[in-house]
Amino acid sequence: MTAATIELSGRAGGAVAVPARALDELAGRVRGRLLRPGDPGWDGAAELWNAMAAAVPALVLQPASAAEVAAAVDFARDHGVALGVKGGGHHIAGTAIASGGLTLDLSGMREVAVDPAARLARVGPGCLLADVDRATQAHGLATPLGFVSQVGVAGLTLGGGLGYLTRRFGWTVDNLVEAEVVTADGRVLRTGPGLHSDLFWALRGGGGNFGVVTGFTYRLHPVGPEVHGGLVAWPFERAGEVLAAYRAITAAAPRELAVWLLLLHAPPAPFVPGRWHGRPICAMAVCHSGDPARAGRDLAPIRAIGDPVFDLVGPMPYTQVQSYLDDTEPKGRHYYWKTEFLAGLDDGLLARLPELFAGCPNPEADIGLLHLGGALNERPGDDGAVGNRGARFVVGVKGMWAPGEPEADRYRQWVRDAWARLRPFSTGATYVNFQTADEGDERVRATYGANYGRLVEAKRRWDPGNLFRANRNIRP
Prior knowledge:
Elements: E1 5-9, E2 15-19, H1 20-29, E3 34-35, H2 42-46, E4 59-61, H3 66-79, E5 83-86, E6 102-105, E7 112-115, E8 120-123, H4 129-137, E9 141-142, H5 153-158, H6 166-169, E10 176-182, E11 188-191, H7 197-203, E12 212-219, E13 221-222, E14 226-235, H8 239-252, E15 257-265, E16 280-288, H9 292-303, E17 310-311, E18 314-317, H10 318-323, E19 334-342, H11 347-358, E20 366-371, E21 393-401, H12 408-422, H13 441-448, H14 452-462
Parallel strand pairs: 4-6, 5-6
Antiparallel strand pairs: 1-2, 3-4, 7-8, 8-12, 9-13, 10-11, 10-12, 14-16, 14-17, 14-18, 15-16, 15-20, 19-21, 20-21
Helix pairs in contact: 1-3
């Protein structure tokens, strides 16, 4: 390498020497900042939510438009440079960063335009869930997004997307009506049904494999602004009773009611009675998004469990429900998860969950069930790459700890062991947005099942050189 070049990680491995003038040319094509380590703003631009997955790029570009994204794509493609794309940076596997390469930080592209008459929202790729919910709720509208407000909309959507409204309206991508995307050859395309339809199909769940999406248009639905939601919990000693009730509740629940179940240690939060701090509990996170007049009746089976440790379920803004679990996932911790889709809740699974949690060595770990059954199950399996139309629940084993934790290896092993004992109940697939970095290609294939071959064909057409590979990768 000479003074006239800069060394970056190559797309195919190793290093590539890029002429310094090429960087100057890239900087000249964009209004956004091209950052190097140590520059003001570098730390935030290169930071990821999961500190365990942290990687360091050599350069970060903060584009302000699709044209500037295209300039960066041209640069990375022409010089063989590894390319990462960061929306919210919240994927557990750290897929946003290409170590030693160029990362696009899309956080500056954070506009939301709501058309309440058409019930559509045009959303920039740097938006977080909170940005979209705040804008759409001003009109009493929403689209199914996740359930932690600091998650990035782009990554959530491209992986399929699930949340409290999934039972009513399907995967997030079932509500995606159009996408603007910069493809590997540097073109800016508008995609939708009947318009580059194979690319649009692949974007609906196929992850970041096919381009940089610079705009999403979502269908909106009347929701809120006030819903019934919150948390309610019981002693862990009643886990068998609570789990049996949960199965009955989810079997009969109207689609307006979504209930997550968590086995966890009670946090030292103001709403938890002091004598329960640190003790194991069974909790339900609740969102009733339907007619408020029916909420009392629909929530009655939860209240019938009786004698809770605490009960915070009541009327509140939908945006508050969407941020209720934020404190359970603070940025900068180490996270390690394993998850599976479930077709149902059988006796063996319900018996195993409290048994596994009783042996948990990590005070910040939990085991959770997310109820998804409803609208997503009514579409064909090939309606979007997301597939998994037989999924009715997600089961997850989640570990969290501080950087430098001396018990980290033990905590990780507990997650793996618990996961191994839950896998027999799985559909054989998992949500791609929950996959960790140590899950290989076979997990990606299993997740997409019969749709995987069609995804490979789309990859061959739209990204034959596998420029977009810092993701749960579909290989051409």
